[in-house]
Amino acid sequence: MKKLLLVASVVLMGVGVNAQEFRFGPKAGFAMSTMKIDDKQDDLGARKMSPKYTFYVGGMAEYKINDNFGLQAEVLYSPLGAKEKIDGINAGVVFVGEQTKVELGTILVPVSAKYFFTENISVAAGANFGVILTAKQKTVIGSDFINVGVVDEENNSGEIDIKKDIKKLNIAPFVGVEYMLENGLFFDARYSLGVSNLSNDGSGGKVTNSFAQIGVGFKFGGN
C-alpha cells in the first residue's frame, strides 16, 4: 500500500512546481459494486452477482498543467463487494434457500489524466489501484416448512474471513466525468472495470470486481 501511495504522489509531483494550478480536498459518495465469477470458480457456473450498494470516502489532489490538461490522484476507502440470492429447491416439505454477501474493505488509489472542455467540465481516464485490506463473506441458509421462499436467518447464519482466498491487488481501469462550481464544489461520476483476477483459492477460476461511483467533493487551492 505504501508503494501505491508513493507512486500516486510521484505522478503528481512529477509535473513540477511550474504547474499552472494545484487543488486538493475531500470527496465522498455512493458506490455500486458487482463481482463476476467464471464457470471454473463455482459449480453454479459463470454469472454476475447482484450489486452491493455502499459508499466511499477520502481525498484528492489535482495538478492542472494548462487550460485543457491535468493529472489527478486520490486515496479513498470503500467496502466493495457484491451479493447473491440463490432460490431454494422444494424437496418434499423442506425448502432451502441461500443468500450470500461478500464485502471487500478496499483502499483505492485512482490515478488519472484529465481533459478540461471548460473551466468547469472535465473528463478523466485512468486506473484504480485497489488494496484489499479485509475480505468477508456471510451466507444465510434457511428452511421453512410454511413460508416457502423465505430465508430464515436464525436457522443458519455466520460471517467468515475469506481474505486468504482473495488476492490483495484489484486493478480497475476507469473513465469519468466531473462538473465543478466556481466556489470549488464539484460533482463526479465514474465507472471502474475490474480486470484483476481476485481468486486465490486454487480453483483456477476467475473472480473480478467492477464498480460505479457518484460523488461530491470540494477543491481548495488554485491560482
From TrEMBL:
Outer membrane protein beta-barrel domain segment(s): 18-199
Sections of the chain in a coiled coil: none
InterPro entries per UniProt: Beta-barrel_OMP_2 (IPR025665), OMP/PagP_B-barrel (IPR011250)
Transmembrane segments: none
Signal peptide interval: 1-19
Keyword match Secreted: no
Keywords: Signal
Name of the protein described by the UniProt record: PorT family protein
